[in-house]
């Protein structure tokens, strides 16, 4: 055997340098292309995406909230405080009451109150908040937007007033008797409560006013969430109230003043007692 010569020695093998550089270059190019593609997609989305809207379907306009703050400062700040926190012996906090409470209280003239009484009565609203005028509708929406921006709360439903009337007044009558008749009477004529408060008659209220009252719970009235009364059930109650106010539905039979079965019971009692007394007198005379 012969010893290996210099030419027979094996040299260590290494990966070709050009191949490694090409692989690194391809990775850098792929990352650069992906980054540019993401930037282009983001720019296109920002250019063509629709503007965000609020829950009420109107653009979330900071100018409307600012207008509402100015209206609040002019008409509400004395009783409800500079930060809606309320003022002792003047007015409660408005944080979290929502836009629905603003529509009901201000749109019906209950606020601002003329005097500190047990209950705020319905009266003509301030001209700038009259819901029957375009200016009043705009100002009510602005004031509601400002209150809504400070704590959230129930919102006034969108759409025309007629869209808040349900299709089943019979079911609405059942729900009304279960949830409302104890205060508002069977036909919505209202009634007295304790401590100088009262349940007002409902024949003067619009569909939107009734709906926002159900949402916000003014005075002694409780709030009815969607778990207690669904939107469809609230609308059916409004359909029942509207039918009674129009005279289309007399749940107590003859109206007799429009206060439901109570009046019929009184008539039956008086007539029955008179008949019994007359019969007793006839028996006495005969004996």
From TrEMBL:
Heme c 2 binds at residues 180, 183-184. It comes from Pseudonocardia sediminis. It catalyses: a quinol + 2 Fe(III)-[cytochrome c](out) = a quinone + 2 Fe(II)-[cytochrome c](out) + 2 H(+)(out). Binds 2 heme c groups covalently per subunit. GO terms for cellular component: plasma membrane. It is found in: Cell membrane. This is Cytochrome bc1 complex cytochrome c subunit. It is an enzyme of class 7 (translocase). One of its GO terms (molecular function) is quinol-cytochrome-c reductase activity. Keywords: Cell membrane, Electron transport, Heme, Iron, Membrane, Metal-binding, Repeat, Respiratory chain, Translocase, Transmembrane, Transmembrane helix, Transport. The chain crosses the membrane at residues 28-48, 265-285.
């Amino acid at each position: 055997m012969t010893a290996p010569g210099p030419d027979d020695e094996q040299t260590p093998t290494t990966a070709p340098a050009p191949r490694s550089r090409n692989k690194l270059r391809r990775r850098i190019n792929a990352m650069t292309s992906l980054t540019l593609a993401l930037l282009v997609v983001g720019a296109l989305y920002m250019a063509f995406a629709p503007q965000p809207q609020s829950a009420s379907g109107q653009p979330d306009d900071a100018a409307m909230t600012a207008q509402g703050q100015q209206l609040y400062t002019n008409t509400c700040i004395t009783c409800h405080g500079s930060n809606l926190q309320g003022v002792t012996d003047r007015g409660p906090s408005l944080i979290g009451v929502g836009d629905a409470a603003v529509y009901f209280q201000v749109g019906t003239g209950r606020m601002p109150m003329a005097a500190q009484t047990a209950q705020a009565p319905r009266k003509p609203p301030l001209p700038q908040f009259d819901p029957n005028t375009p200016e009043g509708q705009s100002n009510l929406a602005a004031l509601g937007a400002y209150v809504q921006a400070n704590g959230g709360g129930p919102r006034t439903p969108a759409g025309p007033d007629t869209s808040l009337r349900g299709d089943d007044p019979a079911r609405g009558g059942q729900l009304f008797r279960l949830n409302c008749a104890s205060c508002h009477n069977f036909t919505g004529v209202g009634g007295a409560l304790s401590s100088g408060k009262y349940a007002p008659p409902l024949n003067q209220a619009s569909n939107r006013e009734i709906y926002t009252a159900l949402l916000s719970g003014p005075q002694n009235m409780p709030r009815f969430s969607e778990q207690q009364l669904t939107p469809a059930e609230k609308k059916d109650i409004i359909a029942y109230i509207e039918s009674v106010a129009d005279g289309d539905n007399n749940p107590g039979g003859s109206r007799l003043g429009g206060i439901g079965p109570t009046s019929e019971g009184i008539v039956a009692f008086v007539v029955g007692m008179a008949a019994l007394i007359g019969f007793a007198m006839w028996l006495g005379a005969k004996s």
